[in-house]
Write a structure and sequence with these properties.
Elements: H1 4-15, H2 18-38, H3 40-43, E1 47-52, E2 55-60, H4 63-71, H5 73-83, E3 91-96
Parallel strand pairs: 2-3
Antiparallel strand pairs: 1-2
Helix pairs in contact: 2-5
Length: about 100
């Protein structure tokens, strides 16, 4: 008997959506990544909105917070890679609302 994880992985690959599902992991991981990098209060004001290629696009409430996150980009990318290693997301773009 095959483990369920193997069956699901094979099904996703057969449907051609395994990459999209893995990228969705980056969006799901974003709240925890943000909390780890900028704290819970600021993190609650951000939102992952989509993945463009290998870039996670995050909406932020102000240009000031966008700049702060850009300055912490190395930490953000490392935390994202740790929390969503299969996502193939390698960069994050911060877009003020």
């Amino acid at each position: 008997m095959r483990p369920l994880a193997d069956v699901l992985r094979g099904t996703l690959e057969a449907l051609g959506i395994s990459r999209d599902v893995a990228r969705a992991g980056a969006m799901q991981a974003w709240p925890a990544v943000a909390r780890a990098c900028i704290g819970a209060e600021e993190a609650a004001r951000t939102r992952a909105v989509r993945v463009d290629g290998d870039t996670l696009v995050v909406s932020v409430p102000s240009p000031v917070l966008a700049q702060e996150l850009r300055l912490r980009a190395e930490d953000v990318r490392a935390e994202l890679a740790r929390r969503a290693p299969d996502s193939s997301v390698r960069d994050v773009r911060f877009v003020p609302r």
